From TrEMBL:
Keyword list, A-Z: Cytoplasm, Cytoskeleton, Nucleus, Phosphoprotein
Protein name: Thioredoxin domain-containing protein 9
One GO location term (cellular component): nucleus
Annotated organism of origin: Urocolius indicus (Red-faced mousebird)
This protein's encoding gene: Txndc9
Function text: Significantly diminishes the chaperonin TCP1 complex ATPase activity, thus negatively impacts protein folding, including that of actin or tubulin.
Compartmental location: Cytoplasm, Cytoskeleton, Microtubule organizing center, Centrosome; Midbody; Nucleus
Primary location group: cytoplasm
Family matches, as CDD domains: Phd_like_TxnDC9
Entry annotated with the keyword Transcription regulation: no
Keyword DNA repair annotated: no
Chain ranges of the Thioredoxin domain: 53-181
Amino acid sequence: KMAADTSVEILQKVLENEILQTTKVVEEHLDAEIQKLDQMDEDELECLKQRRLEALKKAQQQKQEWLSKGHGEYREIPSERDFFQEVKESKNVVCHFYRDTTFRCQIMDKHLSVLAKKHVETKFLKLNAEKSPFLCERLRIKVIPTVALVKDGKTQDYIVGFTDLGNTDDFTTETLEWRLGCADIINYSGNLMDPPFQSQKKFGTTFTKLDKKTIRGKKYDSDSDDD
C-alpha cells in the first residue's frame, strides 16, 4: 500500500509541475504582449485601431453582399435554370436535391435550415429532383437525398444519403456541419480529424476525415432511397 501511495504522490507532483510550467508559459506570453502594447506610441496604437476597424468594416460589407445574394436562409429554387444562376453568383453553394415523398429529405431540411443561418458565407438551396431531370442526370444523382457541394460554379463533392453522416437518421446538425467542413464549403472551426458522431461505437466503424476529392459519376447504392 505504501508503494501505491508513493506512486500517487509522485504522479501528483508531476502533474502539479506540468500545470505550473503551462501557467508560466501563458503568463510569459501575456507579459510579452502587454509589454509590446506599452512600448507602442500613440501613432502605432491609432494605426492598429484603424486596421481593426477596417477589417470589421470589410467583414460587415462582405456579410451584406452575401445576404443580398440570398445567403443566410435555406431557400427552395423553382427550376434548373435558377440553379445555374445561383451557383454563378456565389463562391460556395450547398444544394439539396430532394423528393416530397422521401422522409429522409425532411431530416436533411431540418439540419440545413439551421446551418444556413450559422454559415452566411455559404448559400444553402434545395431543388426538387423530379422537376430537374436534366440536372440530376448531368450530376449523376441516383440517390435521394443527395446534397451537391458547389465551389466556384463546379460541383466538387456530394453527400449521398446518410452514409457519411454515421449511417443513421439520428445524425446531429454538428455531424452535417463537420461533413461540409471536410469539403471546405463552409468556414468550419472544429477539428476535421474528430467527427462529432453521437456514438461511434454504435456504428461499429472508426470514421476519419473524408477525402475532399470524390469521383463524379460513381455508381451509388440506392439504400437511402427508401420512402
